[in-house]
Design a protein that fits this description.
Elements: E1 2-5, H1 24-43, E2 50-54, H2 59-66, E3 71-74, H3 80-93, E4 99-103, H4 111-120, E5 126-130, E6 136-141, H5 159-169, E7 174-176, H6 186-198, H7 204-211, H8 214-218
Parallel strand pairs: 1-2, 1-4, 2-3, 5-7
Antiparallel strand pairs: 4-6, 5-6
């Protein structure tokens, strides 16, 4: 099971750090592109079911974006820690033996990383995809472990260390996938744009959005769409 952790693309609710550079409308459009390309990436991973886990208030909006190809499931409770706990408690209860949860802004992630994460779960309890900034973009497990995600925030500078410590406190074996980067601030967009200029087919919607805003990525002090 491959689960995308997502929110509905609403102004002021997604990618808020990018609002220092782009208008709220543009940021929302950008997140929608990321989400749609991330769904396409997930669906390209053969022989696994794909779902979205989200706050209950976002289910209808995300279902309209996902269509029939991706199931949208409401988490129990609020916040990311509750969402991750819901992923593993709900899907292990339905018989899933290997579950990977990852960020909705990850269309640039090589599919090989997702495959390797599933393979790793054959040999360990938990698999984690670390980011350069101390967070993590992916976490997988083959059971629900109470307390594993207590107070968790995937994108914070101490998230990886905290999750790893909790896993080891629970006596769980941990495997790390390749380190990667999040798309949170304007400098991240520059890196992503450079990658997608070489291979836009990896994330075509995101590549098109970035290409249309090339000058702002070169000069991140410019605010696109500001009135």
């Amino acid at each position: 099971m491959l689960v995308i952790m997502a929110k509905a693309p609403r102004p002021g609710k997604v990618k808020t750090r990018l609002a220092q550079t782009f208008s709220l409308s543009d940021v929302t459009d950008f997140y929608r592109c990321l989400l749609q390309d991330t769904m396409a990436l997930a669906l390209s991973v053969a022989t696994t079911e794909v779902a979205i886990m989200c706050p209950a208030t976002d289910v209808d909006d995300l279902a309209s974006i996902a269509g029939d190809s991706v199931r949208v499931v409401a988490q129990k409770g609020e916040g990311l820690a509750a969402g991750l706990t819901s992923v593993f408690s709900q899907f292990t209860a339905t018989g899933c033996e290997r579950i990977i949860a990852f960020n909705s802004d990850s269309p640039h992630l090589p599919a090989s990383i997702l495959h390797s994460a599933f393979d790793a779960l054959a040999l360990c309890d938990v698999v984690i995809g670390p980011t350069h900034d101390g967070g993590y973009y992916l976490v997988g497990a083959k059971a629900s472990y109470p307390g594993l995600f207590s107070g968790d925030r995937m994108g914070t500078a101490t998230a990886l260390a905290a999750l790893t410590a909790r896993a080891r406190d629970l006596k769980l074996s941990v495997h790390f996938t390749d380190i990667f980067y999040d798309v949170d601030v304007a400098t991240d967009l520059g890196r992503l744009a450079a990658e997608l200029r070489k291979e836009p087919s990896r994330a075509p919607r995101t590549a098109s959005w970035l290409a249309a805003r090339g000058r702002a990525l070169d000069e991140p002090h410019l605010r696109i769409g500001a009135q």
